Amino acid sequence: MNRHKQRMGKFLLRLQLFPPSKVKAWTFAHEEWLDTLRFESSCHRMVFQEYRESIRETAERLRRYEKEIELLSHTHVQAPLIEALQALRGVATLTATTLVSEMVSVTRFASAPSFMSYCGLVPSEHSSGVSRSQGKLTKAGNAHLRRVLIEAAHHYRHSPGVRRKLRERISGLPPEVQRMAFEAQNRLHRKYMTMLGKGKHKSKIVAAIARELAGFVWAIACVLEKKDDQNLVLDSSIGG
Fold it and tell me: What keywords would UniProt list here (predicted)?
């Protein structure tokens, strides 16, 4: 989708066509402005229409994908974990499904730091003798996990709170999961504001928040895994 929009933007830029001031790109007002454009060249008209059609087709395809993912999130074998992860702020169905599908099983990771490392969210390290220095993120892990965690991390700039959509998502979830999700809100928002107050660059702040958010994802997955094990033991004892 972004690639098609960028092509359209560059095309309009070459023709020195700019939207009215205060009109943000790809909003309803921007779409209305695109409807008013007229081109003398038939070649320009054709390219413009093709670009717009490709954007519409991609948007429709994405809507179909999201609808199918929404349906599968309720019937998949990992549905309980998908629902539980949505207790975290900034994690709705699509993000939770991505996290679960890329994680596969929390048993693959012995600890939260190992999961953070798998996401490529730990800083690189250069050591020599007793000296130790850390650099940029390794970005050596799973790019899909890293992307959705960083996108979710932006939400923690807001003050903690459980509003309507989040309240609907946490309804019926285990109390421990709800407690951990609200703890994540408080901890990560506090960390965000502390780093911002120290003058840290926002990209560094978001990366740090995403790293700790990965830890909460791992912890919630462990809670669900432990609950499944307990249910399995209970079922076995009843069957015996």
Answer: Coiled coil
By CB atoms closer than 10 A (0-12, 13-18, 19+), residue 72 is middle
Q: Give the 3-state DSSP-derived string for 39-71, with helices as H, strands as E and coil as C.
A: CCCHHHHHHHHHHHHHHHHHHHHHHHHHHHHHH
What does the alpha-carbon distance between residue 236 and residue 240 come to, in Å, rounded to a whole number? 6
Give kind and range of the element (H or E) at residue 22. Answer: none
Helices (H), the chain: 2-14, 28-36, 42-75, 79-85, 93-103, 112-118, 143-153, 164-170, 175-197, 202-239
Domain spans of the chain, in order of start: 2-70, 76-239
What is the C-alpha to C-alpha distance for residues 83 and 223, in angstroms, rounded to an integer? 13
Is residue 149 within 8 Å of residue 143, measured between CB atoms? no
| 158-189 residue pLDDT tens | 999 888 889 989 988 999 999 999 999 999 99
The pair of structure tokens assigned to 228 is 């499944």
What's the pTM?
0.78
**What's the average model confidence in pLDDT over 115-121?**
91
CA 233 to chain CA centroid, Å, is: 34
